[in-house]
Amino acid sequence: MKKIQMLDLSPEVKLLWDKINKAIQEVVLSGQFILGPNVKAFEQEAANYLGVKHAVGVNSGTDALVISLRAAGIGPGDEVITTPFTFFATAESISRVGAIPVFIDIDPKTFNLDPGLIENAVTTRTKAVLPVHLYGHAADMKTILAQAEKYRLVVVEDVAQAFGAEFKGKKLGAAGNAGCYSFFPSKVLGAFGDGGLIATNDDHMAETARMLRAHGSTKRYYHEVIGYNSRLDEIQAAVLRVKLPELERSNEKRRQVARRYNDLLDDIPGITTPYEAPCAKHVYHQYTVRISDGKRDSVQKYLAGQGIETRVHYPVPLHKLPVYRGNRLILSKVEQAAAEVLSLPIWPDMENELQDYIADMIKFAINL
Ligand SMILES: *Cc1c(COP(=O)(O)O)cnc(C)c1O
């Protein structure tokens, strides 16, 4: 029986092996492992790619969020409006700086926060809005930015799943005060370990983020604030410098795989394939379908029995987790999504036969 995992990183590594190998060896021989020439060069290359003034490399996507919120002056008692349909790190970062995540419901088409609900959630303590570009598809930044301007809110974007994705012809992450990216190995631009990046056009934000990532100091041993040990390391930066020039191509391959899935799955009753807004360019970090009529779990179980790995992103909306349950919210659209979504295997070089097999098995399972 074939075993199909969510993600196969080996074709890309094989393709780039010589360059990656050379880049890693150079770092090792240089003896400079932390904040050296590769981090500096990668920050510049990433800033150019994203179309922003500054990029600051950090330890992880989570730290990118924490440091951006801190640098934007968000702290104890402040409220930050966000989506409950995301990886835990989004809300965890808000809590880590002492602020309170305020969850609002999602747009059921894109799974991203519904900006029409921001207005109702704003209080005198609201300081920021933190949209997530889930699965690699843009949240409605036009409306989010308009609401943020109206209520004078800071905008920090969680772009962990959407490096290279676009909204109205521009790369995501540059529209608000800061964009936060993750280089966790499974992300569309993955390192060989943890890593993250803050993108911003704001000089003060960039300067503060650089200070916070290095124990709150700009000058060695002269610490100005309590900061973090959160640097992107040289080996990760060297690997990312090899991978970044390939990203447009690999994201385009992901889009091709996604379109092929759409063709195979669109006609199956009970399945809703992902929506891609005309003004957005999806990067399909995840290819996530909806399976209605309460059949999601049985389809997933059947696929697992056929050797096909799938994932539910995410089974528990964050407002339902014990740590956030105090709020007693009822967010019906997100709760329905959590019961219906299923992410299928996807990677840039995924073979047609694997997709055909998965589609056949889904067709069979849904009619059981
Ligand atoms: C992966 C992810 C993060 C966290 O990134 P790390 O690099 O793993 O810390 C944050 N938010 C979302 C939506 C993510 O998918």
UniProtKB/TrEMBL annotation:
Keywords: Aminotransferase, Pyridoxal phosphate, Transferase. It holds the Pfam family DegT_DnrJ_EryC1. InterPro entries: DegT/StrS_aminotransferase (IPR000653), PyrdxlP-dep_Trfase (IPR015424), PyrdxlP-dep_Trfase_major (IPR015421), PyrdxlP-dep_Trfase_small (IPR015422). GO terms for molecular function: pyridoxal phosphate binding; transaminase activity. GO terms for biological process: polysaccharide biosynthetic process. The active site is at K187 (proton acceptor). The modification N6-(pyridoxal phosphate)lysine is found at K187. Belongs to the DegT/DnrJ/EryC1 family. PANTHER family: 3-OXO-GLUCOSE-6-PHOSPHATE:GLUTAMATE AMINOTRANSFERASE (PTHR30244:SF36), TRANSAMINASE (PTHR30244). This is DegT/DnrJ/EryC1/StrS family aminotransferase. It comes from Pelotomaculum isophthalicicum JI.
